[in-house]
Amino acid sequence: MLTIDQVNEIYQEGFDLRLKRTPHPGFKGEIDPSTYEIIIYQSNTESQYDKDITILHEFLHARDELNASLEAADCSLIDREAEYIYNNHPYVLAYIKDLYNIR
User: Fold this and answer.
1) Cα separation of 92 and 5, whole Å?
2) Would you give the DSSP letter of residue 41?
3) What domain range is 49 assigned to?
4) Per-residue pLDDT, 45
5) Which of 7, 28, 81, 88 has minimal CB crowding within 10 Å?
6) Cα distance between residue 56 and residue 97, in whole Å
């Protein structure tokens, strides 16, 4: 599960969270490890819930990117973990939004 400590590590490593209004075909979000950007394509999300899940999803990918000992999980596992965090540990998402000044 994504923890506050892991979110802090992602932040301290220099990952930036950007929300873009411009659509990107086929993607709600992506992570670019070469530029340390987590990008959320708001035009491709269907609701606030969808945007929140996408943020968590991409942070889980960033966590895996930073932790070489973890194998990259497939997206269905990441989706399930994002939903679990959203439903059972909402403070993680709130912390991310506060840290990156997302409203």
Assistant:
1) 10
2) E
3) 4-99
4) 95
5) 88
6) 10
What pLDDT shows up at residue 70? 59
Alpha-carbon distance of 48 to 63, in angstroms, equals: 23
Q: Interhelix angle for 90-99 vs 4-12, to 10°?
A: 20
Minimal CA–CA distance to 61: which of 47, 40, 91, 89? 40
Give the Cα separation of 7 and 24 in Å (integer): 25
Which residues does 50 contact at the CB level (< 8 Å), separation at least 6? 28
Residue type for position 63: R
47 is written with which tokens?
Answer: 């609701």
The CATH number covering residue 41 comes to 3.30.2010
Note down pLDDT in tens along the chain; length 103 residues: 999 999 999 999 999 999 999 888 889 999 998 899 999 999 999 999 999 999 999 999 999 888 875 566 678 899 999 999 999 999 999 999 999 999 8
* Number of domains into which the chain is organized: 1
